[in-house]
Amino acid sequence: MNVLKNKTVLVTGGTGSFGKKFIHKALTLGVKKIIVFSRDELKQYEMKQEFDDNRLRFFIGDVRDKDRLYRAFNGVDIVIHAAAMKHVDACEYNPFEAVKTNIHGAQNIIEAAIDCGVEKVIALSTDKACSPVNLYGATKLASDKLFVAANAYVGDKKTSFSVVRYGNVVGSRGSVVPFFKKMKETGTLPVTDERMTRFWITLEQGVHFVLDNLERMHGGEIFVPKIPSMKVVDLAKAIAPECEIQIIGIRPGEKLHEAMIMEDDARHTVEFKDYYIIQPEFSWWSKKYAEGGKELSDGFAYTSDSNEEWLQIDQLKEMVKKF
């Protein structure tokens, strides 16, 4: 089954790292049309030159603008919601701007999708939405809650909503990889804490995970992939083994380790071979949708420091070569 075949797909934040990778893949899967919805006209212009495909449409707009979303969603079958304010520092300094984009924008997506007859919506989340300590994580947690609850909000309409939650993306905009590569020239790499760990996923893996869940979703799930962890200090050594590592201390709003499932969520989470499904705690959810999954043990938590799979320095070297 090819969930995108002959479908019209809209990607919010479509000029971002994930959006471009997803669109590149979607164009090979028989998609009818792809609408790139984003705020930056220069990035759209550059993307148009790069892709040069007559199935692409470019829509200048902001998820804060509900009227613009209604116009953009006309005739759309599938929405991938990748637009967000995601830089922790920027969200801490501009808190209500993050609320307007990440929370109000999510509700605008929901209402426009329902009213315009969109079939499926997948929203991209983050490990920082699990037990958040910074505003970015808190706004994405609120966004996740909105998208899950939206399945009870649709009434007799056909739209279904699900969420994909994963960790840091190798080489994405704002990633530590390009930062370390730039700092390499100084001979010193700043690392916040030598104990710090993170979940790690490539853009390609993220795109495939979204596509897989577009096919398997019923609406209301938060899908979490099983992905490896890495030590930030090992990443620094992989990128610049000749550099001195300077420990600078954890920044405001930063965790020592990240989590994607905590104990309270684990009670209604089921495990599959390569992923978990956090099931919604609503009366309309049918457990048969997650048949074949294994219930988690009491007290389970999926955190970057307790992970079973780890990337070693040699693996990290291979992973970051292309960036």
Automatic annotation (TrEMBL):
Pfam families: Polysacc_synt_2. It comes from the Bacteria. Keywords: Lyase. Residues 9-279 form the Polysaccharide biosynthesis protein CapD-like domain. Its EC number is 4.2.1.115. Gene3D superfamilies: NAD(P)-binding Rossmann-like Domain (3.40.50.720). SUPFAM superfamilies: NAD(P)-binding Rossmann-fold domains. GO terms for molecular function: lyase activity. Belongs to the polysaccharide synthase family. This is UDP-N-acetylglucosamine 4,6-dehydratase (Inverting). It comes from Lysinibacillus irui.
